[in-house]
Amino acid sequence: MLYYPEPLARVISELQKLPTIGPKTAQRLAFFLLRMPESETTKLVQAISDVKTLLSYCDICGNITDRSPCYICTDPERDLQTICVIEDPDDLLAIERTKEYNGLYHALMGVLSPLDGVGPNDLRIDPLFERIRNENIKEVILATNYTTEGQATALYLTKRLENAGIVITRIAYGIPVGGDLEYIDEVTLAKALEGRRRV
Known about the structure:
Elements: H1 6-15, H2 23-35, H3 38-54, E1 56-57, E2 64-65, E3 79-86, H4 89-98, E4 103-107, H5 125-134, E5 139-142, H6 148-161, E6 167-170, H7 186-194, E7 197-198
Parallel strand pairs: 3-4, 3-5, 5-6
Antiparallel strand pairs: 1-2, 6-7
């Protein structure tokens, strides 16, 4: 990027680090930012800074929040006897958009992946079992993605929970194999939740 002035080249380089942003898109965004009024770019910079400084993960469920416990964990209208186990907080947002689920959540912050060196101790599995022991949980919904790692994680949790005296369900196959929850439309995701079955 020697043909760009150094500050512009740096912006293009940083934008390319974002997912799905290639060189041409990064260049278009950089030139768009260059044309924006300074007050607007200042707001954008502040918003990005606030995401890093004002947000954290809920101590209970792992949701992205500006307070802990988060709004979902403290909502008295939620079904306090059901926990939906998800891989990451963005899966929570996908399920919430369906308006079909009103229970609690537990984000594992990933999936089991021995090839990548990710084992049970690297995920938020122990806090899940602690919640099941200490709260009046009647059902655990396993909503990991239908990838090899997601399936392995669901199987691992099923084996660990089979003697816990609770109902264990898995979201239905309305989700395409290999699909990520955050990219699934609301209707498909709602049907998958409705059609969950006992493991």
